[in-house]
Task: inverse folding
RNA sequence: GGCCCCAUCGUCUAUCGGUUAGGACGCCACCCUUUCAAGGUGGAGAGACGGGUUCGAUUCCCGUUGGGGCUACCA
């Protein structure tokens, strides 16, 4: 179902933590919807909670969106900057009688609430509490007495056709006369959101379904303010493996965490998209453009999805082998530096070599960090032999040393350093020694990389080059002999 | 407690009344193979329960159960 007109959507996080994966997914769905149908995607920072909002969090949101490549149109809106309009909207509501002043002291409300709680009955604000004797209102106002402003919830039922849930209805009697302006004259969330969404011309509000119960209040506000009610789409939550709302206890929940684990943004996006959305067929691995092409509100899920880190890893591996080298390279430089494998300067000096190495390693890695870890032996001067590799492939030090010496000699005698030449030579060596190829390749792999697992052995020989390969064979033979005498 | 949302393999999902209920992750086996991945083939694995409606329900309706969200002068 394509929208009748280009939609204006927004992503409206509050900067009270880092950009959460759930938030990132909401941003993605909004972005997909806006971009797909030629609309606008706006960003609004809901920083009205001055106590909890921090610049650090705001920057984390900017960074996270930038890393994911989710761009937005127009200027960022900071909700806190719209305070005057929020108050003006409250005044309008007061003027039409849609809202009223409530001088009930906060302490009194708390007492009533505790009371109701103790008796096991639900507490709902009673409008009678705010009723004043004639002349009282004017007197208190003149005296400057602090008071809250409450919205007068009319009788009836408030409903809407949710783009993912269908019709949702709330009897208004279940909604109390909620506060829209605090006694310190700051607006409350629902008012600020509606005021801003109207001002921003938002036509579709797409957000987490934890906002479903706010929606009737907001619809009432739109109407009282004389504005067109936008469409709503409440996307399901993301849960942890235990079925609870995703939180710190479940491990990494900030997109920054994944960025720093060597995840590719395209894989993160792809994985997130599939949590709560399905293209309708069996296709899973998609580029951003493919997602854009296939995105539709119809594919949005109603059910909460569980975040499965294993599938994220798999997805990343898929993107690692699917993306072009050019797309991957920008992501590997910082990781090699962070993990201390090499410096960007050193890498740029040998860029072609480096690209070839990454191309070799990426198939068997699931994250960029994996690649960097596997790349260590190709940068080290001295190879470190993995204990398991030694005990498995160099079980008999003498035999291993003999084979490696013979291998070294054979390789050194080669006129050309290419895979076919080397393979022919080493296979015939194996035949001469009456052993299988593996008996040569495996010990050789340990000598060259120190590990039992690596890219194809001839690829390793080539990427290392003749001199370094032969030097490593020498080193291995020396190591084995000293090990025997020791 | 009240209100609202949700319910297909362990997980993500396909199915829009008629299927041997399909795919993916993960798991197991085999193949490929110089190792590890990748890839290929196969396997185990699901309609929460109870009522309706219908010739026929995973699919539509109701209830139960279970899970989740909200319930502030937080956002």
Result:
């Amino acid at each position: 179902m394509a929208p009748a007109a280009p939609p204006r959507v927004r992503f409206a996080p509050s900067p009270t933590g880092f950009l959460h994966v759930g938030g990132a997914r909401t941003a993605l769905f909004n972005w997909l919807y806006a971009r797909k149908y030629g609309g606008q995607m706006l960003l609004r920072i809901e920083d009205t909670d001055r106590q909890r909002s921090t610049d650090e969090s705001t920057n984390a949101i900017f960074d996270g969106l930038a890393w994911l490549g989710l761009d937005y149109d127009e200027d960022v809106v900071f909700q806190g900057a719209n305070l005057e309009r929020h108050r003006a909207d409250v005044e309008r509501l007061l003027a039409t009688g849609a809202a009223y002043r409530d001088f009930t002291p906060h302490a009194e409300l708390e007492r009533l609430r505790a009371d109701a709680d103790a008796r096991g009955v639900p507490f709902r604000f009673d409008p009678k509490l705010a009723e004043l004797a004639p002349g009282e209102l004017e007197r208190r106002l003149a005296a400057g007495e602090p008071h809250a402003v409450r919205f007068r919830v009319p009788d009836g039922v408030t409903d809407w056709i949710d783009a993912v849930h269908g019709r949702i209805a709330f009897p208004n009697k279940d909604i109390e006369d909620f506060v829209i302006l605090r006694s310190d004259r700051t607006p409350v969330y629902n008012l600020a959101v509606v005021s801003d969404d109207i001002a921003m011309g938002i036509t579709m509000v797409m957000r987490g379904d934890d906002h479903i119960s706010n929606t009737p209040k907001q619809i009432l506000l739109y109407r009282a303010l004389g504005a067109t009610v936008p469409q709503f789409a409440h996307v399901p939550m993301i849960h942890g493996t235990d079925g609870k709302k995703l939180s710190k206890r479940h491990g990494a929940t900030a997109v920054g965490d994944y960025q720093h684990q060597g995840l590719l943004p395209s894989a993160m996006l792809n994985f997130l998209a599939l949590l709560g959305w399905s293209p309708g067929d069996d296709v899973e691995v998609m580029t951003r453009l493919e997602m854009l092409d296939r995105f539709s509100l119809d594919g949005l899920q109603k059910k909460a999805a569980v975040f499965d880190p294993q599938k994220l890893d798999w997805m990343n591996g898929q993107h690692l082998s699917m993306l072009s080298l050019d797309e991957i390279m920008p992501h590997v430089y910082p990781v090699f530096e962070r993990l201390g494998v090499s410096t960007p300067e050193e890498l740029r000096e040998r860029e072609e070599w480096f690209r070839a190495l990454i191309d070799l390693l990426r198939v068997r890695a699931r994250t960029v960090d994996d690649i960097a870890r596997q790349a260590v032996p190709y940068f080290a001067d001295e190879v470190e032999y993995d204990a398991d590799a030694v005990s498995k492939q160099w079980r008999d030090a003498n035999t291993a040393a003999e084979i490696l010496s013979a291998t070294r000699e054979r390789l050194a005698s080669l006129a050309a350093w290419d895979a076919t030449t080397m393979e022919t030579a080493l296979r015939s060596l194996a035949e001469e020694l009456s052993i299988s190829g593996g008996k040569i390749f495996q010990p050789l792999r340990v000598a060259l990389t120190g590990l039992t697992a690596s890219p194809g052995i001839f690829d390793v020989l080539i990427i290392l080059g003749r001199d370094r390969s032969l030097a490593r064979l020498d080193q291995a033979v020396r190591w084995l002999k000293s090990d025997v005498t020791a």
